[in-house]
Amino acid sequence: MSSITVSCPGKVNLFLDVVGKRQDGYHLIESLFLPITDIADTLSIKQVDTEGISISCDHPDVPTDSKNLVYKAAQAFADKTKIEATWQITLDKNIPVAGGMGGGSSNAASTFMALNQLYNHPLTKTEMQQLAIKIGADIPFFFEKSPAFVQGIGEKITPVKIEESLFILFVPFTFPIAASWAYKNRQAGFSHGEINCAEYTRKLNANESPDTYNDLAHALTEKFPLLKQTCEELLSLGAYSSNVSGSGPTCFALFKDEESLDLAHNKLKRPSIKAKLISS
Ligand SMILES: C[C@@](CO)(OP(=O)(O)O)[C@H](O)COP(=O)(O)OP(=O)(O)OC[C@H]1O[C@@H](n2ccc(N)nc2=O)[C@H](O)[C@@H]1O
Ligand SMILES: Nc1ncnc2c1ncn2[C@@H]1O[C@H](COP(=O)(O)OP(=O)(O)O)[C@@H](O)[C@H]1O
């Protein structure tokens, strides 16, 4: 009987543009995703004698039944490979739940990759990503584990090279916001892809501090003024840009260097988490 333990990073969307809507109601996005390894969950999978998938989790708001994205991923893996599911899965959450940082999606991608490793790679990454997109739009990105330009509803992933270190402060909140709510209540109309990812990345890499953008932020800050207030506070503490992460409510801010990140972290009167993306 073997077991495997893996780390599941969070994510942030430096820009999130909504460029259209599919017939099934899903929105087409253009987004620059960054993996955030400093804020990560831990997932362990143990092979056991009993049939089935059991999940335990240290966070009370995370379902431990078939509604868990980890369960859905494990079931999809078993169905596709015809491997009998005999798995005890433990999940330690650090990524804010329903916080716009992709925690459940990251857990699901890690489940696919961990099971694939445990059973000697019966599936290719593309096969796993094709199964994953049916479970959640954000999951395919988490197979890459590096910055990426994400299009479609989340299935089209182009790696992006970030050559400058990024210093980010995250401000989590305990109330959840569903992605479906954010998309349903977003402002009317679609962007025509105004944000050019190559140009955006060039500015990041040239230390020109491009502003973040989130198409969903307007609806989120209208409904939850606390988020607008938090973003303003972050700017007043020296951030060069601040925004809501994905469908919220987690807010984040970008700083020029480690000193200004530390200063804001110390001065902010709310719990916050520092994260660094250090260029190689
Ligand atoms: C907003 C984003 C930005 O990265 O992330 P989060 O903030 O949730 O982490 C994603 O687009 C969220 O992806 P994810 O959370 O995986 O979405 P899903 O579970 O597949 O879908 C939940 C619901 O959100 C809406 N949805 C999701 C993705 C998308 N491209 N268009 C949509 O309209 C649909 O109403 C869908 O029923
Ligand atoms: N493994 C999981 N971790 C967190 N939430 C999960 C998980 N599986 C299912 N969920 C449910 O999915 C919803 C979205 O959670 P999460 O992925 O953390 O947020 P977001 O989509 O905002 O990034 C939550 O309401 C939670 O009940």
TrEMBL record:
Residues 213-270 form the GHMP kinase C-terminal domain. Pathway: Isoprenoid biosynthesis; isopentenyl diphosphate biosynthesis via DXP pathway; isopentenyl diphosphate from 1-deoxy-D-xylulose 5-phosphate: step 3/6. The keyword Signal does not apply. One of its GO terms (biological process) is isopentenyl diphosphate biosynthetic process, methylerythritol 4-phosphate pathway. Pfam families: GHMP_kinases_C, GHMP_kinases_N. It comes from the Bacteria. Keywords: ATP-binding, Isoprene biosynthesis, Kinase, Nucleotide-binding, Transferase. Gene3D superfamilies: 3.30.230.10, GHMP kinase, C-terminal domain. Catalyzes the phosphorylation of the position 2 hydroxy group of 4-diphosphocytidyl-2C-methyl-D-erythritol. Belongs to the GHMP kinase family. IspE subfamily. This is 4-diphosphocytidyl-2-C-methyl-D-erythritol kinase. It comes from Lentisphaera araneosa HTCC2155.
